[in-house]
Amino acid sequence: xxxxxxxxxxxxxxxxxxxxxxxxxxxxxxxxxxxxxxxxxxxxxxxxxxxxxxxxxxxxxxxxxxxxxxxxxxxxxxxxxxxxxxxxxxxxxxxxxxxxxxxxxxxxxxxxxxxxxxxxxxxxxxxxxxxxxxxxxxxxxxxxxxxxxxxxxxxxxxxxxxxxxxxxxxxxxxxxxxxxxxxxxxxxxxxxxxxxxxxxxxxxxxxxxxxxxxxxxxxxxxxxxxxxxxxxxxxxxxxxxxxxxxxxxxxxxxxxxxxxxxxxxxxxxxxxxxxxxxxxxxxxxxxxxxxxxxxxxxxxxxxxxxxxxxxxxxxxxxxxxxxxxxxxxxxxxxxxxxxxxxxxxxxxxxxxxxxxxxxxxxxxxxxxxxxxxxxxxxxxxxxxxxxxxxxxxxxxxxxxxxxxxxxxxxxxxxxxxxxxxxxxxxx
Length: 427
What we know:
- Helices cover 33% and strands 10% of the residues.
- The protein has 13 helices and 10 strands.
- A 6-stranded mixed sheet has the order 1-2-3-4-5-6, covered by helices on one side.
- The longest helix has 24 residues, at 367-390.
């Protein structure tokens, strides 16, 4: 068994046999197959640490041996892959990294680079290349491996529907009844990133946070291993405020940076798989702060899909073109009511500024205007959650939740079930 307590059943992927464990090869003697290894983040068992993937990482002999122990592939499987009878699927679709050391990965696994299928959550990986003016060391596109986009987080959010049928129905009923909410917007910022600190600084400066439900993970000595690390984090982030902010925001940036944790939830727990509908019922829209803002590529995490499950419109603080990717994936991003002009702006500082103007405009609307506007959005809201459920039928998506939950939830505004094509829905 490889890195998992549970070995999922063999399945088809890209029209080939996908094998999670060498014992499954007995079921397909002599046939071509794909051998799967999941590389992932800290909340699931990793194959090897993400930091050793990067070209600038310190790679010692000891690190190499440790990685090989964790990524143990039977010799006969390696021989099958390198001889052309199989390929290796490396699944890093939990993240959207662009700086990949392909030679190192090939060396660790003892697999030829051109025998690898690399799954990523970077949507535009083919365009994610280093240009002359970029200070990022981009290498995602510079490989003989086969790189493929895997919309993992969309699938994960779909699976969260099972737990929240009643919550979604309640939210739709509140919208339909013109329910007035105590606050305007909702924004989550558990992990500190430059763009999140910058956005919170703007919101603080313009007195918008008092009208929002918001979280901030913060840098605090008690949350770090010793105060020296806390001081280093503060110093590192303090020197970068000017990149996204004008000078007038300096005081607010310093206040946010040194502020304690702010939330009514336990931020020591990763919230990727959680939905807090008490927050949703108390706000009209979401301000999404995606994982990346300035870096190459377009990465869509669960944050970009949760508003569809929340039945809320949104603005998005992320990389240029992130909102447009949602359009391309078939979602309605509420262009009739929300100005996503910021999403087209390449300059990071300007994009942040235009986004802030739209947030200020939306927060300036009266409660009466918002309740009426949400009701106008209701057909779009229903269309989006239906489209989210429909995405479950995409066969070429790999997820770490291998259990078949069967028929997807039924909602009163739908005409029937949407389910796995392999599941009998006539029940």
